[in-house]
């Protein structure tokens, strides 16, 4: 499997990354070298091996359902570029 | 051509936990914007999710209630997409290994039979925040209080064959989750939201037609109307030689039409992968069994019990058990009045009528079960007539208080004093000479019906307070005494 220019442009768009044409060519070649490594791994026989959900051989710990967070809106909104009436403001998302 | 409708539902149920699925922020409804959105919910760098034990327990309860296999190992995955009310850039959800596997529920069909609707699976996930598109100087406002609220998404198989069946299925799920106490069931506040996958095919065909998805419907009535509208659109389209396009559509209740959301939709590519911040969730048989022991009586079982214990019709029992709060209200009434039939009539009659008129849920009823019981007891012991009871109910509804105080204050006690009733009967007979003459001249078998006119006059004269049985008896005796021998 290998990625061409348009694959990389599409992946960048899905991740909302702005990349120039020159960068796309560069990324395509680095990504393809990673994919060739994956291709090599694909050759391994994985019959009967359960897919790995997490590299740690452990299970999820659970948290009691008790409110532990207090309102810190003011502090948390200091790093937002625009706020009004307690809302975060972002560029308009519908026409 | 005759068409068959095929419907599958995806229902999002908001779990009534105290805190978010992955953070200790409160989930209480109606708080000031962003006051319940902590660093984890805002996806600030360096924060990590920790799974809420109660969300897990509730999801397992649901699975057991719909006869499903419970996933002893379930895995959270990331569903990647960009939207401003999703701060992480992905929704934490489950895909390949959900907490609830295949199950089913049975619903009643229009024909009076039952249909088994299979549940494909149900998974745990987090809700997104809310976007407010009112004018903020051309910008969109974001409230992240809802971000991270635990949801169970219940995915059915395409087993429903009409809009009514889809609504019946949604109502059954609503009854189950409210009975389990894992969801407050408040559809107006978005506690339960429904996506409907709708397609049609020629009757008798086994292959599925191309489906459209109707998004985010939050009332049972709209589920029914949206599907009916969409089915009609698909039939027209195909019969005019067109083709249904697989797409997401929005239902507009004001215009009763569905419209395409295509402009917003690019090819969905969510690039799911297991969430590295969360480990597999593993539970054992003991845990599942412990939860099974705590399950309350489920709607189907309760309905069966209402039929035998209270001698209700299948229909009445079904209506009462459709909402657990309504069934609770009813049982409280029965307990306090000892009259199952009278209680059923009032819950499904005056109470339901008033609730519907004001679009209220029984949980918001201004008249409590105890208040209503106080009224019904006075009907039973004949202190007041049924007609007066409706007046008292209106006062209880609008002003509150208790039935006895209202009956006393307004002087509404039923008149059983024979002398007073007799006087009223005499007065009516004296005043209505033409009608009395008609009565006397009528065929004997017609007279019974004609008595109704005099009944009405006497009840009016007594302002509805005369005991109807006594009035009828006296009227008949006195009128018949006037008959020529």
From TrEMBL, chain A:
Taxonomic lineage: Bacteria, Pseudomonadati, Pseudomonadota, Gammaproteobacteria, Oceanospirillales
Pfam families for the chain: GatC
The keyword Ribosomal protein appears for this protein: no
Keywords tagged on the record: ATP-binding, Ligase, Nucleotide-binding, Protein biosynthesis, Transferase
Function: Allows the formation of correctly charged Asn-tRNA(Asn) or Gln-tRNA(Gln) through the transamidation of misacylated Asp-tRNA(Asn) or Glu-tRNA(Gln) in organisms which lack either or both of asparaginyl-tRNA or glutaminyl-tRNA synthetases. The reaction takes place in the presence of glutamine and ATP through an activated phospho-Asp-tRNA(Asn) or phospho-Glu-tRNA(Gln).
Complex and partners: Heterotrimer of A, B and C subunits.
Source organism (scientific name): Nitrincola tapanii
Name used for this protein in its record: Aspartyl/glutamyl-tRNA(Asn/Gln) amidotransferase subunit C
SUPFAM superfamilies registered for this protein in UniProt: Glu-tRNAGln amidotransferase C subunit
EC number: 6.3.5.-
Automatic annotation (TrEMBL), chain B:
Superkingdom of origin organism: Bacteria
Ligase found in the keyword field: yes
Catalytic activity: L-aspartyl-tRNA(Asn) + L-glutamine + ATP + H2O = L-asparaginyl-tRNA(Asn) + L-glutamate + ADP + phosphate + 2 H(+); L-glutamyl-tRNA(Gln) + L-glutamine + ATP + H2O = L-glutaminyl-tRNA(Gln) + L-glutamate + ADP + phosphate + H(+)
Keyword Electron transport: no
Boundaries of every Asn/Gln amidotransferase domain copy: 328-479
Enzyme Commission code(s) on record: 6.3.5.-
One function term, GO molecular function aspect: glutaminyl-tRNA synthase (glutamine-hydrolyzing) activity
Annotated SMART domains: GatB_Yqey
SUPFAM superfamilies named in the record: GatB/YqeY motif (SSF89095), Glutamine synthetase/guanido kinase (SSF55931)
InterPro entries attached to this UniProt entry: Asn/Gln-tRNA_amidoTrfase_suB/E (IPR017959), Asn/Gln-tRNA_Trfase_suB/E_cat (IPR006075), Asn/Gln_amidotransferase (IPR018027), Asn/Gln_tRNA_amidoTrase-B-like (IPR003789), GatB (IPR004413), GatB_C_1 (IPR042114), GatB_Yqey_C_2 (IPR023168), Gln-tRNA_amidoTrfase_suB_CS (IPR017958)
Enzyme class: ligase
Keywords: ATP-binding, Ligase, Nucleotide-binding, Protein biosynthesis, Transferase
One GO term (biological process): translation
Family statement drawn from the similarity comment of this UniProt entry: Belongs to the GatB/GatE family. GatB subfamily.
The protein's role, per its UniProt record: Allows the formation of correctly charged Asn-tRNA(Asn) or Gln-tRNA(Gln) through the transamidation of misacylated Asp-tRNA(Asn) or Glu-tRNA(Gln) in organisms which lack either or both of asparaginyl-tRNA or glutaminyl-tRNA synthetases. The reaction takes place in the presence of glutamine and ATP through an activated phospho-Asp-tRNA(Asn) or phospho-Glu-tRNA(Gln).
Quaternary structure and interacting proteins, as annotated: Heterotrimer of A, B and C subunits.
Name the UniProt record assigns to this protein: Aspartyl/glutamyl-tRNA(Asn/Gln) amidotransferase subunit B
The encoding gene: gatB
């Amino acid at each position: 499997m290998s990625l061409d220019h348009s694959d990389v442009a599409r992946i960048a768009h899905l991740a909302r990354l702005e990349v120039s044409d020159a960068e796309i060519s560069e990324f395509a070649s680095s990504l393809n070298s990673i994919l060739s490594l994956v291709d090599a791994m694909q050759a391994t026989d994985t019959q009967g091996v359960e897919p790995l959900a997490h590299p740690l051989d452990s299970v999820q710990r659970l948290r009691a359902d008790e409110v532990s967070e207090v309102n810190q809106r003011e502090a948390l909104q200091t790093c937002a570029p625009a706020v009004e009436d307690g809302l975060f403001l972002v560029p308009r998302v519908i026409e | 051509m005759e068409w068959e409708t095929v419907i599958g539902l995806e229902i999002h149920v908001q779990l009534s936990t105290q805190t978010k699925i992955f953070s200790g922020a409160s989930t209480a409804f109606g708080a000031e914007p962003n006051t319940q959105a902590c660093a984890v919910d805002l996806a600030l760098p360096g924060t990590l999710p920790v799974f809420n034990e109660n969300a897990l327990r509730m999801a397992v309860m649901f699975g057991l209630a719909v006869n499903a296999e419970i996933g002893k190992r379930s895995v959270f995955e990331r569903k990647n997409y960009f939207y401003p009310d999703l701060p992480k850039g992905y929704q934490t959800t489950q895909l390949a290994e959900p907490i609830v596997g295949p199950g089913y529920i049975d619903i009643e069909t229009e024909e009076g039979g039952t249909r088994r609707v299979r549940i494909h699976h149900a998974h745990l996930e987090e809700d997104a925040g809310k976007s407010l598109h009112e004018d903020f100087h051309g910008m969109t406002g974001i409230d992240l209080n809802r971000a991270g609220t635990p949801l169970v998404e219940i995915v059915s198989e395409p087993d429903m064959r009409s809009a009514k069946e889809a609504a019946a299925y949604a109502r059954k799920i609503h009854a189950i989750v409210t009975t389990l106490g894992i969801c407050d069931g408040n559809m107006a506040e978005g506690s339960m939201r429904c996506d409907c996958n709708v397609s049609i095919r020629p009757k008798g065909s086994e292959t599925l037609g191309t489906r459209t998805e109707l998004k985010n419907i939050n009332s049972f009535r709209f589920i029914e109307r949206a599907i009916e509208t969409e089915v009609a659109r698909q039939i027209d389209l195909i019969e005019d030689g067109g083709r249904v396009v697989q797409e997401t559509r929005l239902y507009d209740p004001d215009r009763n039409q569905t419209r395409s959301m295509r402009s917003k939709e690019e090819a969905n590519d969510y690039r799911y992968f297991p969430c590295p911040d969360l480990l597999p969730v593993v539970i054992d048989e003991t845990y599942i069994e412990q939860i099974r022991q705590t399950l309350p009586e489920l709607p189907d079982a309760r309905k069966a019990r209402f039929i035998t214990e209270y001698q209700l019709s299948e229909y009445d029992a079904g209506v009462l058990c459709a909402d657990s709060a309504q069934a609770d209200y009813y049982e409280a009434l029965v307990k306090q009045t000892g009259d199952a039939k009278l209680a059923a009539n009032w819950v499904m009659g005056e109470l339901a009528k008033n609730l519907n008129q004001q679009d209220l849920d029984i949980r918001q009823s201004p008249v409590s079960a105890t208040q209503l019981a106080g009224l019904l007891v006075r009907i039973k012991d004949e202190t007041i007539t049924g007609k007066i009871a409706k007046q008292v109910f209106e006062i209880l509804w609008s002003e509150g208080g208790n039935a006895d105080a209202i009956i006393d204050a307004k002087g509404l006690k039923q008149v059983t004093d024979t002398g007073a009733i007799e006087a009223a009967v005499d007065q009516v007979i004296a005043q209505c000479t033409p009608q009395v003459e008609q009565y006397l001249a009528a065929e004997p078998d017609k007279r019974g019906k004609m008595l109704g006119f005099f009944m009405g006059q006497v009840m009016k004269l007594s302002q509805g307070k005369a005991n109807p049985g006594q009035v009828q008896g006296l009227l008949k005796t006195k009128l018949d005494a006037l008959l020529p021998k």
